Amino acid sequence: MLSLLASVFLAQAVPMPPAAPQEIVIPQQTRPLPGGLDQVPVFNSNNPEVVKTEGILLSTFPPQGKRVPAAHLNFPFSGRFDLFSHHIARAIETPDDLRSLYLGVIVYNPGDAPVTVDVLQAASYLSQPDAEFIALPAHLENARGTFYSGPGDRAMNDVLRGKRQAGWVDRLVIPPKQSRMLMNLPIPVRPLKPPLNGRSTLARLYSNGAVYMANLAMFAKQNPDGSERAPTLEEWETLLETGDFAGPREAAPSPPDRLAGAEIYGRVAAVAQGSQWRTQVTDPDSRLLAIPEPGQAYSYGLSTLLAGKMGTGQNQSATLLTRYPGTAYQAHGNYGIEYKLTFPLINTTKTAQTVQVLVQTPLKEDTLSKAGLRFRQPPYANVFFRGTVRIRYNDDRGLPRTQYWHLVQRRGQLGEALATLTMPPGDRRLVQVDFLYPPDATPPQMLTIQTLNAPQ
């Protein structure tokens, strides 16, 4: 509580004008991230983001016998694959109709023997009430996973920790020539003001046989007493067979060879390739990565993309194995993709050095306009990244550490150290950084290794 003197002083004090924003350039090298995405296919449903009419969001079923063949991409899944879904229900234009919008993921077995789909990890959250967008500090320890802002942030946090959320089956057995519902969950808008809500979902799956999958949107059905009920399997099957695209469709993307300035990346409705980017980052022709010289740094791109390669020359966006015309040409943003990065650091200098590992959100560029990354102090107001990052390393006492940091980074933000290491000459330290790129984030980011100047 303030003292009386302090209260009087604050009441009389004239507020100081805010400092003028300044651009900061950190002279350093940016590097492409070694390795690449794996071959795991990802059912990626994000178009349209805001769903106002019932229909098919994404279907990989065969088109034969369907009323709208163009809505079905004819792509079977077998073995490991992922499901990513991110959609919003909005009733602002029709405020009298506040029915919940259901998302139904239906899986079909075309074979002559039962197929088992194992749900390895899974999470699905609403923005309200499960994971509201709340203001959080820029850098917050998140050991228990209790800090998140937004449903995408929370879902990625769960899957990063290997969880399968309550309510998901661990195994789905599908008889021959039959369908089963993997997900049948609502996006309620009543009594929200405004009537706007969203749901983010990520599931890691394994099937021992070929299956087709679709994500469908349908308004809640009504019970005789006026209450809502979820659509039945038969109602979902009818929508799949006779339905058209859910709408309204998003704006068409800019051609990928002409992205410049006000580019439209487009939203994804496709099967993408790549669930994880796993790599060990070393110097060329070496098994180790030399730390920077004192006062220097280097950065590796995270989720770099067309027109945003940050001087690395590398576009990390997942390629699409099949897509709907008019949707994104690539899975820009790599939402739901896990980065598993290992840095075998070594101090090759002759003195002890203090080394820091950071995630940063510099101003987006393709080729660097200056000799380094550009930041802004203070950063812009709009949040470009909100999510949990795990870092594992041996501390200065040689003890293994695992830390989870929840980050909220705005455009142009320098970031804070995930770990600070004091490394004697010749010291080797293995650092592992792991996170799932969250929806409701804006790429790219950079992972920076920096060596502090020695104290004078």
Total individual domains:
2
| Overall residue-averaged pLDDT value | 93
Number of helices: 3
Q: State the helicity in percent bands.
A: under 10%
How would you sum up the major sheet? 11 strands, mixed
Question: What is the element string, with H for helices and E for strands?
Answer: HEEEEEEEEEHEEEEEHEEEEEEEEEEEEE
Q: What are the segments in which pLDDT stays under 50 over at least 5 consecutive residues?
A: 1-16
What's the N-to-C terminus distance?
40 Å
Overall outline: globular
- The multimeric state of the shown protein is single chain
Strand content: 35-45%
Which structural class best describes the helix and strand composition? mainly beta
Query: Total number of β-strand segments?
Result: 27
What is the alpha-carbon Rg in Å?
24 Å
Short précis:
With 456 residues, the protein is mainly beta.
Helix and strand layout, with pairings?
Blueprint: H1 4-12, E1 22-27, E2 29-31, E3 41-45, E4 50-51, E5 55-59, E6 77-90, E7 101-108, E8 115-126, E9 139-141, H2 151-160, E10 171-174, E11 179-187, E12 196-219, E13 221-222, E14 228-229, H3 233-242, E15 269-273, E16 276-280, E17 289-290, E18 297-302, E19 320-323, E20 338-346, E21 353-360, E22 372-377, E23 383-394, E24 400-410, E25 417-423, E26 428-436, E27 445-451
Parallel strand pairs: 2-18, 3-6, 4-6, 16-20, 17-20
Antiparallel strand pairs: 1-22, 3-15, 5-12, 6-12, 7-11, 7-12, 8-10, 8-12, 9-24, 13-14, 15-19, 18-27, 20-26, 21-25, 21-27, 23-24, 23-26
